[in-house]
Design brief:
Shape: globular
Helix content: 40-55%
Structural class: alpha/beta
Largest sheet: 8 strands, mixed
Strand content: 15-25%
Oligomer: single chain
Order of helices and strands: HHHEHEHEEHEHEHEHHHEH
CATH superfamily: Vaccinia Virus protein VP39
CATH architecture: 3-Layer(aba) Sandwich
Radius of gyration: 18 Å
Bound molecules: S-adenosylmethionine
CATH class: Alpha Beta
Length: about 250
């Protein structure tokens, strides 16, 4: 699926108006938690991959003193972000082709962005490449708490982070297959439930979040989504993965 079709979901003003510019569960509390578990100190160089309008990036620069940059493929989100925070370094780029030199970051942060990327393996390879040898990837995202139901989410006719949800085992496999050692995993499914509840209370509907556009489509797809959700039991996780020494040596031929 073309990147444009995926990002238009996050450009929807209904979603953008929620949570101070963050279009995903957990708010800045989850960003704060990611920083806390990584023990990153002021001055580190961090890439926010799929930064949207840059709300978390701004928080990391202002409250933690990180030297942070953000990338996102959405012109709409970047334009809004630049208007709000002209001083923030926001660049238009795709996670599958990061415009940065090898080993240039201490940390990569992916807040609900890995699940919307078509080629996650390529994106993780890029994270590995741009991280320093002891760098850390911090990710929070959707996962299927019932692994056997994950296939139903992928079969949905539209793309959102829900359709990119795979089981914990598959996330760990993807990360470790890309050269990372998973050093931390924490369940934050409550944040996903709260996010869904807020969408319903504020907009009376959830279909905006999962991309159904018309009422007729909404009815048919709503039933399909409901059945897929019941089967997959989507949850939300926070994980930290370190660039593994063995993988670095293997890839550099040592
Ligand atoms: C659920 S939103 C999360 C945005 C932001 N990280 C936040 O915390 O609010 C997913 C983001 O991933 C971006 N995205 C989609 N495809 C991408 C890609 N191929 N590379 C990088 N970012 C992508 C979207 O434009 C969107 O901003």
């Amino acid at each position: 699926m073309p990147v444009e079709n995926i990002i238009s979901l996050y450009e929807n003003p209904l979603l953008r108006d929620m949570g101070g510019g963050l279009v995903r569960p957990g708010g800045l509390e989850l960003t704060q938690r990611a920083v806390a578990i990584s023990a990153l100190k002021a001055g580190v160089r961090l890439l926010d991959m799929g930064c949207g309008t840059g709300a978390a990036l701004r928080y990391l620069v202002e409250h933690h003193g990180f030297r942070a940059v953000g990338i996102d493929p959405s012109i709409v989100l970047l334009t809004e972000g630049r208007a709000k925070n002209p001083e923030l370094p926001l660049a238009r780029a795709c996670a599958t082709r990061l415009p940065f030199a090898d080993r240039s970051f201490d940390a990569v942060l992916a807040e609900c962005s890995l699940s919307v990327i078509n080629d996650v393996g390529q994106a993780l390879g890029e994270c590995f490449r741009v991280l320093k040898s002891d760098g850390v990837l911090l990710a929070h995202d959707v996962y299927a708490r019932n692994p056997s139901g994950a296939a139903g989410l992928r079969e949905l006719s539209f793309k959102s982070c829900l359709s990119g949800a795979v089981s914990k085992e598959e996330w760990v496999e993807r990360l470790e297959g890309s050269g990372f050692s998973v050093i931390f995993w924490e369940d934050h499914s409550r944040a996903l439930k709260e996010f869904a509840a807020r969408l319903i209370f504020e907009h009376g509907r959830l279909d905006t979040f999962w991309g159904c556009s018309t009422a007729a489509q909404g009815l048919a797809e709503g039933a399909q989504v409901q059945s897929a959700l019941l089967s997959a039991k989507p949850g939300y996780f926070l994980a930290a993965a370190r660039k593994s020494g063995a993988a670095v040596a293997a890839r550099s031929g040592k």
